[in-house]
């Protein structure tokens, strides 16, 4: 039998008495199982904390629970050296509990101290949030990106550490193609990660925003959203092809040598003549132009024409 981890808040005369809880006794040889009380002023938030949004209502509920029953689960921290503050402690897991304790003006909180470097601390903070499913999908993507960039890890290495597939890690990182405004819009609208991935097929941010608004307006599920996005992309492709065809200059015949034109006219006249039709042509060269005159008789020798076709 051990006591619940609770320190009465200074000035809180209504704080309840300690609650007796069953807990496995710590292993004397295991330092990580020893609970120590650390002053809140010596505790620092994790610089690699993946959780960005801390819901105020949830924080108030947690603070009320701690006021009533105490901190039932200690924070997990690591020792850090700070040139300004000296020996301090960085939170690995339990930042919400720490924030609630500060809100209640608690001067110290129960902690378990782990030996962990900066990389291990970041990994543990991310895994802890993943297991508790406290992160939204954009926070998770940012945390994965931070792990990769800060510690020069590959997607495959991160996937192994987080018990995810490499493709799952890649899919989450693609979500960072949304800018911050788009991310907030998607989260506030209640769209899921699969909705977001479907919207990513649209590369134009303006068109993507319109598509998202349409999906939200009609409360589309993921399947309907994917079908709608495919239609939008198909229509945009057809529109682009039409614009390209209209923008192409129409080909006009170009006669590089005017003599080729004259030869063509002469050849046509000769062909008609050989068919028995009385035709003649004249060509006059003026200062700025050529004048070609073609005369065809109204009547012609039908017999010669029939003879010509017979030869053909």
How would you characterize the overall build of this protein?
With 312 residues, this protein is an alpha/beta fold. It is built from twelve helices and nine strands. The chain has a five-stranded mixed β-sheet with strand order 3-7-5-6-4. A hairpin with a 4-residue loop joins strand 8 and strand 9.
What's a quick, concise take on this entry?
This protein has 312 residues and is an alpha/beta fold. It is built from twelve helices and nine strands. It has a five-stranded mixed sheet with strand order 3-7-5-6-4. A two-stranded antiparallel ribbon has the order 1-2.
CATH superfamily of the domain at 1-117: Conserved hypothetical protein from pyrococcus furiosus pfu- 392566-001, ParB domain
How would you describe the shape?
rod-shaped
Classification by helices and strands: alpha/beta
What's the helical proportion of residues? 40-55%
The major sheet is characterized as: 5 strands, mixed
- Strands in their spatial order, largest beta sheet: 3-7-5-6-4
The first-to-last residue Cα distance is 120 Å
Beta fraction: 15-25%
Return the CATH topology of the domain at 1-117: Conserved hypothetical protein from pyrococcus furiosus pfu- 392566-001, ParB domain
Q: Total strand count, please?
A: 9
Can you write the helix and strand succession as a string?
A: EEEEHEEHEHHHHHHHHHEEH
Rg, nearest Å: 41 Å
């Amino acid at each position: 039998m051990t006591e619940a981890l609770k320190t009465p808040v200074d000035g809180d005369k209504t704080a309840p008495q300690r609650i007796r809880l069953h807990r496995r006794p710590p292993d004397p040889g295991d330092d990580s199982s020893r609970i120590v009380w650390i002053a809140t002023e010596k505790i620092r938030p994790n610089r690699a904390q993946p959780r960005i949004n801390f819901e105020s209502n949830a924080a108030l509920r947690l603070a009320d629970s701690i006021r009533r029953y105490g901190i039932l689960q200690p924070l997990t921290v690591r020792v850090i050296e700070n040139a300004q503050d000296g020996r301090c402690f960085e939170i690995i897991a339990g930042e919400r509990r720490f924030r609630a304790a500060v809100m209640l003006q608690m001067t110290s909180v129960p902690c378990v101290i782990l030996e962990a470097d900066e990389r291990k601390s970041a990994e543990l903070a991310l895994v802890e949030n993943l297991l508790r499913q406290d992160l939204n999908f954009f926070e998770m993507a940012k945390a994965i990106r931070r792990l990769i960039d800060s510690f020069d890890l590959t997607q495959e290495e991160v996937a192994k550490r987080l018990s995810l597939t490499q493709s799952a890690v890649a899919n989450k990182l693609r979500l960072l193609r949304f800018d911050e405004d788009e991310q907030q819009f998607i989260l506030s609208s209640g769209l899921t990660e699969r909705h977001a991935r479907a919207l990513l097929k649209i590369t134009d941010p303006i068109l993507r925003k319109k598509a998202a608004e349409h999906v939200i307006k009609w409360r589309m599920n993921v399947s309907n959203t994917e079908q709608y996005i495919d239609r939008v992309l198909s229509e945009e492709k057809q529109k682009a092809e039409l614009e390209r065809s209209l923008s192409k200059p129409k080909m006009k015949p170009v006669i590089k040598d005017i003599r080729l034109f004259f030869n063509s006219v002469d050849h046509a006249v000769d062909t008609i003549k050989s068919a028995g039709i009385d035709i003649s042509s004249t060509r006059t060269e003026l200062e700025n132009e050529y004048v070609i005159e073609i005369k065809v008789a109204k009547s012609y020798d039908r017999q010669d024409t029939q003879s010509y076709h017979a030869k053909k």
